[in-house]
Specification:
It is a single chain. The protein is of the alpha/beta class. The protein has helices at about 20-35, 45-60, 75-85, 100-115, 125-130, 135-145, 170-180, 200-205, 230-235, 270-285, 290-310, 335-345, 370-380, and strands at about 10, 70, 95, 120, 150-155, 185-190, 210, 225-230, 315, 325-330, 345-350, 350-355, 355-360. Strands 2-8-7-6-5-3-4 form a seven-stranded mixed β-sheet, sandwiched between helices. A four-stranded antiparallel β-sheet has the order 9-10-13-12. The protein has a two-stranded parallel sheet with strand order 1-11. Helix 3 packs parallel to helix 4.
Length: about 375
């Protein structure tokens, strides 16, 4: 991974570095397309092979059939393109977790403004900060129970919270929503989960499970996906429409694809598919999802334990993180000043605004020496 050379990198939750084989696969894909001719009869089988290759790989990780997997550019488009095409009624309520990413929240707010919907907050942040891990699932479900109303039509909840690093009980939430009179849809932001932990149970249970390839999967930016439930495919209509949405791309009157491809739009960068498919294969070579999570947690646990020993440091979670996100607060200099000071040492973490904290991410590439280097640097700044 060239991006890791000379750096101590803890920003996998923002963007993962691209492995050299994946970069080479992108380049080779560009070359093949140009050699075959970018718009010739010879190139289409290659394009279909590469897009099908990545679609099948992502669908397998999500535990769904490829027909339920749409390729998208990023998490935001994966969440909002299906969401905006659902049959909303004025007065429907959107119940949104208070740890959701601003990009998704902003899209929901604008949908509510246009459709005359109501917005409500599902409190989970304070639960994450003060509840033992063994009790968190029950606390989240109890919070959901208190906030559900007869007009609740959608619940928005990330799988792995991007700020606290807590794991949400997505399958249990989906089961509770199925018992609600209106059976609200469940939208899950999976930006921090795919590639870092097993996701098939949650992805198969959610209605909209959107993710990107450029974070924990260490693929190229600009390509992700969304796993959709059968009822979303039955009820949802495209909102951004192009030839890839159509069953017959040469006929404007053609009906939409019956499957998830109805939420794909138009021309995309095929070499990105080659790069992401290669990154996924490289991850698979490193062991099962459970085995990789074990390595990730070993790193995050080491960092969490080291932070506990430092005066003036407060970790957001009172127990070791369930995955690779470690969020903490440091007395003294502000978060951005800490990020800048560490960057001058080529140690890279990030600051977050809600709650105000610092976040470091460990992946399977993170070494014990790198964790210790970060801890030593933080001790110097404290």
């Amino acid at each position: 991974m060239p991006a890791l050379a000379g750096k101590t990198y803890f920003n996998y939750g923002g963007q993962g570095p691209l492995p050299t084989p994946s970069l080479e696969a992108i380049t080779a894909s560009w070359r093949t397309i140009q050699e075959l001719g970018p718009f010739t009869g010879a190139v289409w089988p290659f394009i279909e092979r590469e897009t099908s290759r990545v679609r099948r790989a992502l669908a397998a990780l999500c535990g769904v059939s490829p027909s339920r997997l749409a390729l998208t550019e990023n998490v935001s488009s994966g969440c909002l393109l299906p969401l905006w095409g659902l049959p909303w009624q004025p007065g429907d309520e959107l119940l949104i977790g208070d740890c959701e990413h601003p990009g998704v929240v902003a899209g929901c707010r604008e949908l509510a403004r246009r459709q005359g919907l109501e917005l409500a907050v599902l409190p989970v942040q304070q639960l994450c900060l003060g509840t033992p891990a063994a009790e968190l699932d029950g606390a989240v479900l109890a919070s959901l129970e208190r906030r559900l109303r007869p007009n609740t039509r959608l619940v928005v909840l990330s799988h792995l919270l991007w700020n606290t690093g807590s794991l949400m009980p997505i399958a249990a939430v989906a089961e509770r929503l199925a018992a609600h009179p209106r059976q609200p849809w469940l939208l899950v932001d999976a930006a921090q989960s795919l590639g870092s932990l097993p996701v098939s149970e949650a992805a198969a249970a959610a209605d909209i499970y959107a993710f990107t390839g450029h974070k924990w999967c260490c693929g190229p930016e600009g390509l992700g996906g969304v796993a959709l439930s059968e009822r979303i495919l039955e009820q949802g209509q495209p909102t951004l429409i192009g030839w890839r949405s159509l069953r017959s791309e040469t006929e404007a009157t053609s009906p939409w694809h019956r499957d998830a491809r109805r939420f794909e739009v138009a021309t995309s960068c095929v070499p990105l598919a080659s790069g992401l498919a290669t990154s996924l294969e490289l991850l698979a070579d490193e062991g099962s999802e459970a085995e990789r999570l074990g390595r990730i947690r070993a790193g995050s646990g080491r960092l969490w334990q080291g932070l506990q020993a430092q005066p003036g440091v407060h970790t957001l979670l009172e127990e070791p993180p369930p995955a690779g996100l470690v969020s903490f607060q440091l007395e003294g200099p502000g978060p951005q000043a800490v990020v800048q000071a560490l960057g001058e040492r080529q140690i890279w973490i990030r600051s977050l605004a809600d709650p105000t904290c610092l976040r470091a991410c460990t992946h399977i590439t993170t070494t014990d020496a790198e964790v210790d280097r970060l801890l030593e640097a933080l001790a110097d700044l404290g």
